[in-house]
């Protein structure tokens, strides 16, 4: 574990040259999430019943009992792998694949979030040139030729990265605005060496502060279904889980518009949390 000085963290918009590093960070942070989701779906009663029916049919055609059991499970896993959002996508977004190029920042002046730790310590965080990955220059050139329209930028959402002395140590994804005053966080990831340092809390609270200043009154957060850590994390930050049956939820028509992402046979893939700003 590496000690992270939070007052040296700069939270800025993702640029196009950061995309490969962000994808690698997402892949590292979401390792095993997809497999846990698949296991969660496979163990639901309705899914087990369907697999048992197909196995019984195959048993009449295949002489091997093991093959009759394994073939339906194997085919379903392949189907889920193809249809489920990938580890480099953003589960919880309204789209199965995130538009990294469209959400890249192209302004001349850096757009940053306020870091409260800088005010406390009185230090000014240093901004260095991001570290480039070997072999990423050609890919960056290819991506820069894509046509980016204002409509695509608006629909793509935003990605904020935590930059510490030129190294990207975390990121947070905020989806595009689809309802007035409503924002949606669909992914928060920190590097494996910088966890339990308060970085994820800093990212979420800084985005909340910015959205509050721009007129948002509620933030939703989608957490992958098997993630107990994410559930505890957002509850500590004052979020409530959707569907807990409070009187406020029953009377609030807007909250009924937010639903969890669903996969095979309608099984939920995410848990929805909300917080009024």
TrEMBL record:
Main location class: membrane
Keyword Cell membrane carried by entry: no
Record SUPFAM superfamilies: Acyl-CoA N-acyltransferases (Nat)
Xref: InterPro entries: Acyl_CoA_acyltransferase, GNAT_dom, NAT_camello-type
Keywords: Acyltransferase, Membrane, Transferase, Transmembrane, Transmembrane helix
Molecular function as annotated in GO: N-acetyltransferase activity
Signal sequence, renumbered to the chain: none
GO cellular component, one term: membrane
TM helices/strands, residue ranges: 37-55, 61-80
Family the entry assigns: Belongs to the camello family.
Its job: Probable acetyltransferase.
Annotated protein name in UniProt: Probable N-acetyltransferase 14
